[in-house]
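Today's session is about reading a structure prediction critically. Students often jump straight to the picture, but the first step is always the sequence itself: look for stretches that repeat, for charged clusters, for runs of hydrophobic residues. Only then move on to the predicted structure, which in these notes is written as discrete structure tokens rather than atom positions. Here is the chain we will use throughout the hour.
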Amino acid sequence: MSTQTSWVPPDIDVDRASPARVYDYLLGGAWNFPADRQMAEAAVARMPWVRDLARYNRSFLSRAVRYCAERGINQFLDLGSGMPTSKSVHEMAMEIDPESRVVYVEQEQVAVAHSELILTSVPGAGVLGADMRAAREVLASPVTRELLDFTEPVAVVMASSLHYVLEAEEAAELVRTYLAAVPAGSYLVLSHITDDGADGSAEVRELVELSRATTSAGVARSRAWIASLFDGLDLVDPGLVYTSQWRPNTPLRLVTDMSAHASLLAAVARKP
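Below is the predicted structure for this chain, in token form.
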């Protein structure tokens, strides 16, 4: 897409890259613009592992959603959902339970417009155009309340989204607020970019710096800080690991010179 099509809100500046659309491009999607592709290619030219980073994260999300769905979870609150790149959470969940219900929460207006376009014929799935940081408004929204029953377990999904909340305490409080709203038996699915000073950390910092040129800057955080988000929850085996290591579908060979393996930490945990 090289021009602004009819479904794109007219006040959107498509000449500035968006993390959601850059991610879509890295995953092979078509819902992006030249500025997004240029940003993605610039990142890949400097850090060839970035494309794999996106794929590992999406694969983790797919495995995590399947894990939750196979344990009877049929409600998902996808916070900072980005572009509805195939497969999306509703497609993943509905493969296990066709009656699954999904609410996508995203503030990027192009992503919201595209989500509205494709979800009109999908019963059980809806999109809320809102900032995930406005937790109380998200939880009280008619879209959320119509689709999700908060007396039954819900999977709260924060896949590569919380690191766009720059203030650490605000980010931690968001997790606490959303988890407080769901009952025992609910799950937290989370991945977050990390920088612990290990091999490749300089490249991670470069990736974070590149994000400052997009519509949403990100921040890398320590393993200890990310682990603290799961305090009081029952971590699912293998615990907090890199996305490529969380219950891989095939035997995994770690390539030590690929920072993609050591950039995003991920975990799934159950609320007791």
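Discussion point for the tutorial: The beta strands are 75-79, 101-106, 125-129, 155-159, 187-193, 234-235, 241-242, 264-270.
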